[in-house]
Specification:
The chain is an alpha/beta fold and 239 residues long. It has one domain: 3-Layer(aba) Sandwich (Rossmann fold). It is built from seven helices and nine strands. The strands form two sheets. The chain has a six-stranded mixed sheet with strand order 5-6-7-3-8-9, with helices on both faces. A three-stranded antiparallel sheet has the order 2-1-4, with helices on one face. The longest helix is centred in the last third of the chain and has 15 residues. The structure holds adenosine-5'-triphosphate (ATP). Adenosine-5'-triphosphate (ATP) binds next to helix 2.
Length: 239
Amino acid sequence: MFLREVRIENKHLNTRQYPFSIPVIRNLESLTLNQPVTFFVGENGSGKSTLMEAIADKCGFNTAGGGRNNYYEIDAQTSALAHYVRLSWLPKVTNGFFLRAESFYHFASYLDTLDGGTGPYGGTSLHEQSHGEAFLSLFTNRFNKKAIYLLDEPEAALSPSRQFTLLRIIYDLTETGECQFIIATHSPILLGFPNATILSFDDEKIEEVRYEETDHYRLTKYFLNNRERFLEELFSDEE
Ligand SMILES: Nc1ncnc2c1ncn2[C@@H]1O[C@H](COP(=O)(O)OP(=O)(O)OP(=O)(O)O)[C@@H](O)[C@H]1O
């Protein structure tokens, strides 16, 4: 554990302006982190990426994705929230990585400009690997201990079985307490990681929920157990 608390300070009151137009961000005072793995869950647009990006910015990571020393040009991504965020560390780490599924392509391009992109990523440019293979190459070759990893929807490129591989990687890195992950996800598989804190961004505030209480678990379980009935209801004309 390294990052213990995220505080929002000196919010301005113009609630029509992003990021304080987002109810969860407007209502957030402080967030305590007490497990090596924390998940952000919630509906699309509830503010998960906004908070994650601000934390990445305050960690000194490239907000387009990457670590501290990864400087590359893509459409400017400045975090509107970072200015208001204070992080409390014990102890402080500077190692780590921010993974954004949506801009991973640009990060891979940047690596290609360094040393043909083949150095630490399994001997092949990330562009010559499939999206999911490239993600996993990054996880297996770049992730190591004494670091904090911020992952925004890492499941985007991963098959279910590769999501299990990622769970194993996270398990190996966190079992001695020397790594911390904050993961925004919609994946009921990733959310099943044991002893993680799950923070829901629904209902206009951040609240800890149990795995079995998440929509991800409940809807997926209901769908798998009642697929025909579920689809009949979904496609019926009745409101
Ligand atoms: N740069 C921006 N300027 C203005 N509004 C923004 C900006 N970025 C995001 N928003 C808005 O803020 C809200 C929260 O977006 P955010 O990306 O944080 O949601 P999210 O919970 O990560 O959603 P998802 O699960 O779809 O990734 C959305 O309504 C979005 O349109």
